[in-house]
């Protein structure tokens, strides 16, 4: 069955959906239409295969989606689907232990997996010559995996998954919300009554028998979809699929789970005093419908109408009028067998959540009374059109969507139907679902508040049950007692699966052509023509950012980026938002340490109108005092939240230790509570008048518009008058006295955050590319030494990485991880050992693997509009040559082991590295005195500026 989907997304939201023949040529396709061709067929074993050819880049994406998620688990074995996803990366009969990750990295590819309530998906994107090797590997774990399971592998992966839970749930503010909500929304035993990550106790109790049962029941070919998208030959791809997958067993038939929506006979209220939270949080949940139920699209739109934008009723009441929270959200979430409608907000400090709930209901009343306009609905629908194009900008996104839609609708091309149904929603549909599912209906609400602030929770709330794991040294036991290399009997195959497939053909690609120009006022222009999609993506970057902040008022630039989006001289904030919304465009302003970037994304046909609005944003700020007050309150709220986040604390302390508190980079870009509190609207105006100039700005464009037309559009910006901008000088004064390990006590932290590094390059970053090469084997990804040793071998962490971050005048080397609390010392010791020995252990084989992996991965540098825009921004920001990637490649090819070792010794010298650890002081600090790093220096986490406790 070969099909091609075609959308015509034209004026007035007219959608034409045509089925066209396989032989239709691109010349017969109108320029304003988007087509996504696919071919679907089914093997005799039930495996459903979807193929999509896209020869625009020499790469291919493979997605294997199994129709199994946490909704198939048994009570007492929660989290098992996600745990099993991890297990499949460990080993298989013919690929071998640890080789899946190793091979994909050596191929220059990317990979991952994911588990939800309803599915588990595995995916890779690699250069197209590696398709057969990837299919060999994916088929091996589909049909030739189970015999390789060992006690060591099972116990090791338990620790990795438990680390993921600690990092994402137990050690994070508000991390237990999902658990509390699902447990109390659905009846006991309902497939959605537990969260995907599951419980630590259930994970610990998992056995090899459980693994084998789960694999046999759900991982047959008949319960999977294989989608391949990219630079493929359809006939050859079919041959390879048949070769590697046709003999795999279909597995038992998996029963369909019928919709099981939640039913609330009463309103339920629960609260939790969260020791990691600094602000009160409320979320209200109403049961709705399963995915693809006819009411889903109207419920989706209802959520947007209630809270998206400054005109929305809940925003008006909660944010503008009552000033209870910096923002409010509402959204519908429909899954395979049930759905929920969610409304909530994280309030300002001290706000009583009863007042916030009353404001939510007042917003509902406003919605009922005042309704919404046709323009509101049109804005949402135009945004959906633009979203279709953005959602298929990479071969990976195409492969995943084809697999997902096929699994849940039996139609790989359901993306078009999905859009059609969005565009077909009427005003009557929206009000009908509001009245049916929300108005006057029972709901579940959770109140999460800081410890000691129970008086802020919703009246009538009962304490929620939350399971928190104690910190116990040695609780996980010793993996050394398990045998690692267990012999197993290989599963018979019709082909010799021990033969590793060769790469197919010669890999070649041409980088995109980059055009440059300059406006009369000095603003540089960089352009790439790309017409695969009828889209325009652009950015205007102004150098400066936080670097030009007054040191006493750090956070000024960050406040300014928000202020620029709050209307223009000719448009109120609402009118600005509406103007962009009616064009289906997104525009944002972001501040970093060294620049402020205005970014835009739209359909190419709307680019000129969007740029005209950006010109207003840039040159005609509104300077609305009311909006400034709101933005400032929101910024202070965000800072208060970050001060409760162990990762944010670790980053703040690391930077201040690294640079010294007199350096501007010792501060967070957002500033501190004290610095932001002192900032006035006049400070923003002063920053803008002194530091916004085309002489330090660059414009970057990628899309389906020729350079000449882009230059014509930019001529309107030539009225922007250049000025001299003064850049201060700062000296790096690393805060090192008699020790190189700094400890921040975060009581009861279930994970310890470890940051290690140094300012590696000052006064220039000419060595950045070469230094990044030297780091590749150490910590650049899942194939690195740090990842292998700390996660795969020891199970200390969910991930460990290292790398260089470039600034305009230097670069920082940093290695980091979040490890389970009771192996903090062991992790520091292992980090130190690996860093101490990295240079000496670097081998000739490492040189070749590094070169091959980086060179092959560069094939993925040119695919999406975002990646191309990133190349242009690198060129302008760091004054790089237009062909810097090719020059970096040439330098890489010429590098030898001695040169790499020299770079390691110069920029990663272990004697110069600073260690910062944020963890539980009462259990971990005493253990860190014997690491070879001297006595730990204790830092007070509650101080905004580094305060060392002697």
UniProtKB/TrEMBL annotation:
<dbReference type="InterPro" id="IPR011765">
    <property type="entry name" value="Pept_M16_N"/>
</dbReference>
<comment type="similarity">
    <text>Belongs to the peptidase M16 family.</text>
</comment>
<keyword id="KW-0732">Signal</keyword>
<dbReference type="GO" id="GO:0008237">
    <property type="term" value="F:metallopeptidase activity"/>
</dbReference>
<keyword id="KW-0862">Zinc</keyword>
<dbReference type="Pfam" id="PF00675">
    <property type="entry name" value="Peptidase_M16"/>
</dbReference>
<dbReference type="Pfam" id="PF05193">
    <property type="entry name" value="Peptidase_M16_C"/>
</dbReference>
<keyword id="KW-0645">Protease</keyword>
<feature type="domain" description="Peptidase M16 C-terminal">
    <location>
        <begin position="206"/>
        <end position="381"/>
    </location>
</feature>
<dbReference type="GO" id="GO:0006508">
    <property type="term" value="P:proteolysis"/>
</dbReference>
<feature type="signal peptide">
    <location>
        <begin position="1"/>
        <end position="22"/>
    </location>
</feature>
<keyword id="KW-0482">Metalloprotease</keyword>
<dbReference type="InterPro" id="IPR007863">
    <property type="entry name" value="Peptidase_M16_C"/>
</dbReference>
<dbReference type="GO" id="GO:0046872">
    <property type="term" value="F:metal ion binding"/>
</dbReference>
<protein>
    <submittedName>
        <fullName>Zinc protease</fullName>
    </submittedName>
</protein>
<dbReference type="InterPro" id="IPR011249">
    <property type="entry name" value="Metalloenz_LuxS/M16"/>
</dbReference>
<keyword id="KW-0378">Hydrolase</keyword>
<feature type="domain" description="Peptidase M16 C-terminal">
    <location>
        <begin position="678"/>
        <end position="853"/>
    </location>
</feature>
<feature type="domain" description="Peptidase M16 N-terminal">
    <location>
        <begin position="534"/>
        <end position="660"/>
    </location>
</feature>
<feature type="domain" description="Peptidase M16 N-terminal">
    <location>
        <begin position="49"/>
        <end position="170"/>
    </location>
</feature>
<dbReference type="InterPro" id="IPR050626">
    <property type="entry name" value="Peptidase_M16"/>
</dbReference>
